[in-house]
Automatic annotation (TrEMBL), chain A:
Family: Belongs to the amino acid-polyamine-organocation (APC) superfamily. Spore germination protein (SGP) (TC 2.A.3.9) family.
Sequence intervals crossing the membrane: 44-66, 87-109, 115-137, 144-166, 192-209, 221-241, 270-292, 304-321, 333-353
Pfam families reported in the protein's UniProt record: Spore_permease (PF03845)
Protein name as catalogued: Spore gernimation protein
Organism: Peribacillus cavernae
Membrane association type: Multi-pass membrane protein
TrEMBL record, chain B:
Protein name: Spore germination protein
Lineage: Bacteria, Bacillati, Bacillota, Bacilli, Bacillales
Membrane topology reported for the UniProt record: Multi-pass membrane protein
GO biological process: spore germination
Subcellular location: Cell membrane; Membrane
Chain segments annotated as transmembrane: 298-320, 370-388, 394-413, 425-449
Keyword Lipid biosynthesis: no
Naturally occurring in which organism (per UniProt): Peribacillus cavernae
Keywords, alphabetical: Membrane, Transmembrane, Transmembrane helix
PANTHER family xrefs: LEUCINE ZIPPER PROTEIN 4 (PTHR22550:SF5), SPORE GERMINATION PROTEIN (PTHR22550)
Length: 363, 510
């Protein structure tokens, strides 16, 4: 049942840092501040920290399962729930991955349409973008990891650009600290899961890591880096915008970029969007790689064929979503499903797995 | 379709088998028949000398042998000494390694190498083969493609023996092994694979040897033919083996653990495995102090990025994103472009193509005319184009700078690649502006990620990230830091020298 992956396809453990980090960062970076601030207001930065810590715990849970099982999510589900129920959950996960890819692609194209080319049609850009995804995924997991690595390295300097809005900051905006009810905070945390989604792909690529047990700390560091970036972005947005202003801003990150100017350059957000294409790309690749790999393991089909199939669905899906409302609806939906599948379901899987494992051990 | 191809392939295989079969048939006949066959060619000499003490037949290709040797070292002895057998020739002639054989295959091969065949009777099956090949080689000259200001100047020439000598004298150790083979059905080119045993990774050596052995081609005219044929991805515009004409570079990389291929008749050695960063290091970097070398490497790197991206960015910004330009700068741009009726992409394409034309014309013409063309093209056409209003001043500056920047790459093949990949970027920039450039960048990165050189990752110190190899990548750290060979090559012995001794620091006043 378990086929070990050949040595030449494995990646070094420390690359898990980049895998985790780049799959978490997506289009969410551009717009998450508003969604959180809707519930938690000036306390949103606490939400980011708390969600980050929750994800740390989840990563720990995932590793306790994986270190024993040493295989992917598909096999784990079939071992834990049996062939049929496990298969059903697997299909659910594959669909979830697929929908994530559609949302990521479509929201990115939406940003481009709003900020860069208002009359750009979705189809051509999506097609070219998915072609490059095909190019990456078809050459295997090592290349996918490479894209993740390069995506992170190239976007590193963007962090510096978030220092600029601090020139116009009002630190008073952060006061009073902890002025929200538990329910509001819980809601905001629930909202914060979407930007953090991506760590659960560990369950898919774990067998592709050399000495996988040593990679756990790198996964945690990766999540920590994501948390740090979200924290910087959140704090910057909170001190830069008035609250009402923030709630009316759809893409706070892009709006913040607007104030950067040099003697030879204005409107930095256009460059930011171009870099966004490079930042979003690894996530697309990894999600579609995971979806096609999962389908391969589940149905025993050739991954290259299923990849083409998934890419076409992704293309059709992103073309069907025409306006802001439908995109928003799907994003809310994915956010919700993501919340249940990763934040709620993973602890359940953790409990069931360890209970069964312990019982099996006794027998 | 597939079937058709396969059929064709089978036919080719069969026909090639047939050819070799007929060849063999000829060899199966007598030496006499072989000589008669050769006589059909005008440059084959076959004559009888009945006047000497022991009458003899002598045959050779006049185009391959040195008449001087024949007259000075062979004929005088044959004409004066009384020989009773071919064996005695070994004592009689002042030439080493006289072959006495009746094996037709060897005879044919040696004759084509420039040996002189000596028989006592025309029908004899045994003969003596005496070497007398002509060695006409270009004089050693300065390496022109990879010129360096400091350091050794000599470059390889078209003779394998000379080139091997240039390498061997820099590495006079027994570990330096030379594996020779003959390649090319028609050209019978001698190819040598060089490596240091115990340092070069065996896997790399075997990959090279295997690929060379599998290779089937009619003519190996230059090493670049081999470079293309054994490349991991023959469809890539990126060179996957480095070619160099500097013997010092070859000796240097052999010491690192790389494998070198030398081809007879080619002044370029092939080096592999190679990664993309190696192409941006001039060998001169090792002859300057490390701070300077590092600075120039960084400049070269920026030059490459600049060269690829600057015209596409110009097209993207002027076509779509003029908001990016601040008002003051915009004034300059607009004034410059005011008269130009063409859209930016056409303007850029015209300029880029002009520069390519100039370069191509300059490269094909003799040096003196080439310089004139450069001046005429650069000054006259440039100024005229701006005055005529076909292109803007700014773009003229940009394209000229970009062309200049592309030539900072020390390896010519890579600089051609850099000039070429600008065009897809240009088209994408016209399509989607800055976003298009990002998309083109994604494709380029993916392509580089997929590439391998002899099975090793092409983008190496960047991905897979190996911090250790960064010491000699974008910058060059001092030699005392480079105590280990690059991880990239997986050398059999990693250590170059003892790090501790190199790093030892003296106390004050000691």
């Amino acid at each position: 049942m378990k086929t070990p992956i050949k040595e030449q396809f494995l990646v070094a453990p420390f690359l898990v840092f980049f895998l985790v980090h780049s799959t978490q960062l997506g289009v969410g970076v551009l717009s998450f501040q508003r969604d959180i601030a809707e519930f938690a207001g000036q306390d949103s930065w606490i939400t980011v920290i708390v969600s980050g810590i929750i994800v740390h715990v989840l990563i720990w849970m995932i590793y306790t399962i994986l270190n024993k099982e040493k295989s992917s999510l598909i096999v784990i589900h079939q071992n834990v729930f049996g062939k049929w129920l496990g298969g059903l959950i697997n299909i659910l996960f594959i669909l979830h991955f697929l929908v994530i890819s559609i949302v990521v692609l479509r929201t990115f194209i939406e940003v481009v349409q709003v900020w860069m080319f208002p009359s750009l049609r979705t189809l051509p850009l999506a097609l070219v973008y998915l072609c490059s995804v095909y190019y990456v995924v078809s050459s295997g997991f090592r290349t996918v990891t490479g894209v993740c690595f390069i995506g992170v390295i190239f976007s590193l300097f963007l962090i510096v650009t978030f220092l600029a809005p601090w020139e116009f900051s009002t630190l008073r905006n952060l006061l009073p600290v902890y002025d929200h009810s538990f329910k509001e905070m819980a809601n905001s945390i629930k909202e914060m899961t979407f930007p953090f989604i991506g760590f659960e792909f560990l369950l898919m690529y774990y067998p592709f890591i050399q000495k996988p047990k040593t990679s756990q700390k790198w996964a945690h560091y990766g999540n920590l880096a994501t948390m740090a970036i979200y924290l910087i972005l959140m704090l910057t947005a909170l001190v830069y915008f008035e609250q009402e202003h923030l709630l009316r801003t759809s893409w706070p990150t892009l709006t913040m970029w607007k104030i950067i100017n040099f003697s030879f350059l204005e409107r930095f957000e256009l460059i930011g969007i171009a870099f966004g294409a490079v930042v979003v790309f690894p996530k697309m690749c990894l999600v579609l790689w995971a979806a096609s790999r999962a389908t391969k393991e589940l149905f025993k089909v050739r991954q290259i064929k299923i990849l083409v199939f998934l890419l076409s669905i992704c293309l059709i899906g992103s073309c069907i979503l025409k306006d802001r409302d439908s995109i928003d609806l799907l994003q809310k939906f994915v956010s919700m499903v993501g919340f249940y599948l990763s934040i709620v379901y993973i602890p359940i899987l953790f409990l069931i797995y360890h209970l069964r494992f312990r019982m099996g051990g006794k027998r | 379709m597939k079937k058709w191809f396969r059929n064709k392939y089978n036919q080719q295989v069969q026909s090639s088998k047939k050819m070799s079969h007929t060849n063999y048939d000829q060899q199966d006949q007598s030496l006499f028949a072989l000589i008669n066959q050769f006589k059909q060619s005008g440059d084959f000499v076959h004559f009888y000398n009945p006047q000497s003490p022991q009458p003899f037949w002598i045959s050779y290709f006049s185009s391959l042998i040195d008449v001087e040797i024949l007259h000075r070292d062979i004929l005088p002895y044959l004409n004066t000494i009384k020989l009773s057998s071919l064996e005695e020739l070994r004592g009689a002639l002042p030439i080493e390694n006289i072959v006495i054989t009746s094996d037709l295959e060897i005879i044919q091969k040696e004759l084509f190498k420039g040996f002189v065949l000596i028989q006592f009777n025309e029908e004899d099956s045994a003969c003596a083969l005496v070497r007398g090949e002509i060695k006409k080689v270009r004089e050693l000259t300065i390496a022109e493609e990879e010129y360096s200001v400091v350091g050794p100047k000599e470059g390889f020439v078209e003779s394998l023996a000379t080139n091997l000598n240039l390498v061997r004298k820099r590495l006079p150790v027994s570990q330096l092994l030379v594996k020779k083979m003959e390649m090319g059905k028609l050209s019978k080119t001698e190819v040598a694979v060089l490596y240091l045993e115990g340092i070069a990774n065996e896997e790399n050596v075997n990959t090279v040897l295997q690929r060379l052995q599998k290779l089937e081609f009619d003519q190996i005219i230059d090493s670049s033919v081999i470079a293309e044929l054994i490349a991991d991805n023959g469809n890539s515009v990126f060179p996957q083996l480095m070619d160099t004409e500097r013997p010092d570079r070859v000796a240097g990389v052999l010491g690192e653990g790389k494998v070198v291929i030398l081809v007879d008749g080619s002044p370029h050695a092939l080096i592999g495995p190679i990664n993309v960063v190696n192409f941006f290091s001039a060998f001169e970097d090792y002859y300057m102090n490390w701070q300077m070398a590092s600075a120039f490497r960084v400049i070269r790197l920026f030059a490459v990025i600049f060269s690829v991206l600057v015209t596409p960015i110009y097209v993207a910004i002027v076509t779509y994103h003029y908001q990016l330009i601040p008002k003051d700068l915009m004034v300059t741009l607009v004034t410059s472009r005011r008269m130009v009726p063409l859209p930016p992409i056409l303007e850029a394409l015209v300029m880029e193509l002009t520069i390519e034309l100039l370069r191509e014309a300059g490269a094909r013409l003799p040096t003196k005319v080439g310089t004139t063309i450069g001046i005429v093209g650069g000054i006259v056409i440039g100024t005229a184009a701006v005055e005529a209003g076909v292109t803007s001043n700014i773009l003229l500056i940009i394209t000229a700078l970009a062309a200049l920047a592309a030539f900072t790459t020390p390896i010519y093949r890579m600089s051609s690649t850099i000039r070429l990949i600008r065009f897809p970027f240009l088209l994408f920039a016209q399509l989607w502006g800055l976003l298009g450039i990002a998309v083109a960048f994604i494709f380029l990165t993916t392509h580089l990620l997929r590439l391998t050189s002899l099975g090793r990752p092409y983008l190496e110190p960047i991905y897979p990230p190996r911090l250790g190899d960064l010491k000699d990548a974008f910058i060059r750290l001092p030699f005392s830091w480079q105590s280990k060979r690059p991880m990239f090559l997986q050398a059999e012995s990693q250590k170059r020298f003892v790090k501790k001794q190199a790093k030892e620091k003296r106390d004050i006043d000691e």
